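Morning run. Coffee first, then this:
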Amino acid sequence: ESVLFSMPIIPFPLEAKQDEHSLSAMRQSLSQCEGSIDKVNRNVFPDTALSMSNTLVVSGWLAENPSKGILPETVYVTLTDGQGKRLYIETEKEIRTDLVNSFSQITMQDAGYEVYVDISNLKSMYTLGLAYSNQDILMNCKNFSIQINIESNNP
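And here it is:
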């Protein structure tokens, strides 16, 4: 069996922060966010719905205020189903030296994120988006929305 990714596949769904504080206890807000979903399963930000079955791979960058180099504590990729249920998947940091040059802020090197998620147990249309948390506030980004169709790979 070949290994496709160097990062471990994160079990799904992941609905709690690592420090064991529940996301549901956080104060939620909707915001216009500064950042990018650069790639979804190696596709540059798609204009049309994507279909996938086993693994979701997302990378990009997100900052609270890039011109001042202010970053969120934690970045999440979100999957929202047709009933509005939103799942939060915590991302890993990805070093982005290109952002240091773009924003003239050294802290922006830590604004990158990436996540590899096993989605083989899911089957439906979802809207992929971004969110971030700082202390007790969970900000859902209203300006990121990619339609994905997760197809079952099971017979």
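Residues 40 and 58 are 5 Å apart (CA to CA). Good start to the day.
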